[in-house]
Amino acid sequence: MKKNTFYLAVCVVLMAQNLALAQEQQEKEVEQLDEIFLSDTKFELKKENSGKIIYKISQKDIQQNSGKTIIDLLDNIPGIEINGNNNVAGSNIGIYIRGGRNRQVAIAIDGVLLNNPTGIAASFNLNLIDVNQIESIEILKGSSSTLYGSGAATGVINIKLKKAVKSPFNIDYLASIGTNNSQRTSSNSLENLEQNLSMNGSLDKFNYLLSFSLKKEDGISAANDKNSPIPFETDAFLSENALMKLGYKVSDDLSIGFFGNFNSYDYDYDGGAYFDSSINNGTESNIQFGLTSDYKYKKGNLKLTVSSSDLDREFDSYNGFSGTIDHYEYKGTSLFAEAINKFELSESSSFILGVNFQEFDNQTNTPFGDIDKDVANYSTFDPFVSYLYTNANGFNLNVGARLNNHSEYGSHLVYHINPSYNLISNAKTNLKVLGSYSTAFIAPSTYQLFSFYGNLDLEPEENATAEIGLEFSNNKWLDTNVVFFNRDEENAIILPDFITYQNADYTINAKGIETSVNLEPTTFLNLNLSHTFTEKSADVDYIPKHKFVVGVGVVPFKKAFININYKNVGERTYFDQWGSFGTPGEDVILDAYSLVDVGMNYTFNHLTLFALASNLFNVDYEDVLGYSTKGRNFKLGLRLNF
């Protein structure tokens, strides 16, 4: 798996620190009340005019958490629980927002919705995204199907990729090495290796960005070997990520762009919970390319996006009954096209009109049945509209509707109403009360419709969410908010007894409170505290009732930063339907656990050095029942920028 080449490249770069040039790195400080969001309108909107509480992971946050993945960063956001993040690299990731699962969370990159047409839940795999290619991430929680369509029932993860700098040429290089141990191992071998090279710049009206990343991990068994007298074989992971963005500014009002990316990873995996395998392995890759245009006119802004994506998954699995190796192949294609226009009626009101088209197909070949893409395909055509009103006296209103036209199950209307009011709003302080009521839907996947277990009579899952909240900001030292939400889910798609997919005839209710406090009393100290309470009436696998996160950022001296992160995850429930861990049909309770991570970085001239210690106290817990969890590990790295 290119092991020798990878080791050599990392070692060469780690010795390159003596070549750094002398130039002071400058940072721009943006006051909180000037912060701009895109997620709840798809156009720039000031924070005080938004009726949602949107969390943003900025480039500064990414830089100060060097060595962490996109999934690590998301797992510390209030209201989000990432299941499987602390297992071996390449493991299946569960994203739980407000009691929902992966299928109820929409993921978008630069406005393009991402899907996996071959998956049961059609959810995109975040393992395919490299954090070093990301400029920022916005997390919008609550039903958002009006703007984002199917899947945006509990939240939207909106990823913005890096843009070219204004100078003709800029290069950024990151390399890191580290250990990769479970709680049961303590090897000093450097089995966690990573490097990223990016080049970008602007030449007159043309701009470009090229980025390539490699990541390798080994040293841990995917399955937990605590019940075995013999240690399990380790399972390796290797990923490659390439990105290209090209832009051309036709005029002051019109710009066009092209983007293309390739993401791939190879992985080993085991035979199941507490069960080793030296044979099982797989690969997954995704190729995407597209065109964008952005036209600004006197009273509006028109954006056009077209994207095509091909996803391939293959894996080999040992069959203990026949003694043979079974091969599985999944191929899916997606087409995304969207036109969206914002027209300003006045300084205080505007309309957002759009139309979205998506098409999917799924070709599956397995020993247990095939899915033909000529049959397993569908398309959607959705017109949508939103009206945005912002008043100088502090009242804001965002209302909208979307008509989803699905080739298999017909038409479905969703809507939202989102008022907010700034009780106090001035240059330094903002106090806002907000509320919303919104509906959402999750379309059945190609697998749920067309597989051996498929059912063409399935209805989409329907969600209705009400929320009310309060947000207070003082741009010098404090930013805090609290939100209460209540969500009802109808027509949940289930597979009872592995016969055929059906719509549940009961309502699932999820409700909770999300609280966040950010304090910056001095320029050298930052404190983040959050608590998430979630209560769900059914389908509660791996969703904790309570989750606490505390982050402390310290600037001990100029150009240095220390980050200490504490996370407490409460008891979680796993419903053991088939009795794999005890009695069939009973719940298995996973204990609560607490983790402490410590990160440090220091910048001088063009060079940043960083270090990370994760699970500092080597806490022994199971993130996913029956699978290994990472223990205490250390990582060292550097970043060169010039």
Automatic annotation (TrEMBL):
Pfam families: Plug (PF07715), TonB_dep_Rec_b-barrel (PF00593)
Protein's UniProt keywords contain Transferase: no
Signal peptide residue numbers: 1-22
Chief place where the protein resides: membrane
Membrane topology designation: Multi-pass membrane protein
Limits of the TonB-dependent receptor-like beta-barrel domain: 251-616
Alphabetical UniProt keywords: Cell outer membrane, Membrane, Receptor, Signal, TonB box, Transmembrane, Transmembrane beta strand, Transport
Subcellular location(s) of the protein: Cell outer membrane
Domain TonB-dependent receptor plug: 48-156
Family indicated by similarity: Belongs to the TonB-dependent receptor family.
UniProt protein name: TonB-dependent receptor
UniProt source species: Urechidicola vernalis
